[in-house]
Design goal:
Layout: E1 2-5, E2 8-11, E3 16-23, E4 32-38, E5 44-50, E6 58-61, E7 64-66, E8 68-74, H1 76-86, H2 89-96, H3 114-127, H4 131-138
Antiparallel strand pairs: 1-2, 3-4, 4-5, 5-8, 6-7
């Protein structure tokens, strides 16, 4: 799905999938499937689709509804909140970094060249650590 919201393009075909959740099966009035995505710019968005009795329903006439879908841009806090609720701890930490049991860590958002981001991602993967841990190791 591709959508322009607030002058920005959100495209599920070009964004990186972070994680997803599903309830029920397609065709069920209560079916929901939500996928969290991250754009190259670091912006997050949620693509959701669902049946006629969900928040994704679309009206097709007077008192007539069908399943639908939409995209919702999310700030970092909203993306983390969604991920915390629906993803495993491992998937959460792979995306947002290791969670400490104290407040000694802070979250920052950076904009770097796509090639730089890919180099960081590959280097972290080769070492078997998160991108946050890789950057921390460079300055310790």
């Amino acid at each position: 799905m591709k959508k322009i919201i607030g002058g920005k393009l959100y495209n599920t075909d070009t964004a990186r999938e972070v994680g997803w959740r599903q309830y029920s099966e397609p065709g069920n009035f209560h079916y929901i499937c939500e996928t969290l995505y991250c754009k190259r710019t670091g912006e997050y968005f949620l693509h959701g689709e669902g049946g006629a009795l969900t928040q994704y329903a679309e009206t097709i006439g007077q008192n007539q509804w069908r399943g639908g879908q939409h995209i919702e841009p999310m700030d970092l806090k909203a993306a983390k909140d969604w991920a915390e609720q629906y993803l495993t701890a491992e998937a959460y930490e792979a995306e947002f970094g290791e969670v400490e049991e104290d407040d000694s860590r802070v979250t920052i958002t950076l904009s770097v060249a796509a090639s730089t981001a890919e180099k960081i991602r590959r280097a972290a993967q080769e070492k078997g650590i998160t991108m946050s841990a890789l950057i921390d190791s460079m300055f310790q």
